[in-house]
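Hey, sorry to bother you again with one of my protein questions. A protein chain has come my way and I'm curious about its shape. I'm sending you its amino acid sequence along with the backbone structure tokens. I owe you a coffee for this, so here goes:
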Amino acid sequence: VTESRRVTDFLSWIARNFDRSVTWADLDWVRETWAGPIVVKGVLDPQDARSAADLGADGVVVSNHGGRQLDGVLSTARALPRIADAVGDRLSVLVDGGVRSGLDVVRMLALGARGVLLGRAWAFALAAGGEAGVAKMIDIIRREMTVAMALTGVTEISQIDKRILEI
């Protein structure tokens, strides 16, 4: 297969799987159609987070989709603080990507996330050990978080904020 064929195949796949006509205005239609919470995933820019809040989203997920969509895209840990500062308490700020341990969970909470999503960790744990593997992974994350919290002087998750990163 030639290089130009691979590029053509990729561009065809993009055209079939991504709708370029989607805009922020479509969130109004989603809100009219769906009465439940709306969470917008893939936010890396503070202005996009503000737009989501202005349009009635309940939350955003700061996500670079594992960095697989665009080579060299901004890390979620780097994007998160500016997004959390931009929207404050207007909506829930969640994060995924680059989270591999309980320390990473604590770090993301300290950077401003209200919740941290674990994708690969539980998927790998499930593949390796089924339900017992997932239970073990959750226990490992919990224990790592407990250690990170103890080392930063907090006893409650609600006490985690950017001050612990200065220690």
Summary: The two ends are 54 Å apart (CA to CA). The mean pLDDT is 91. The helical segments are 3-17, 26-33, 46-54, 76-87, 102-110, 120-151.
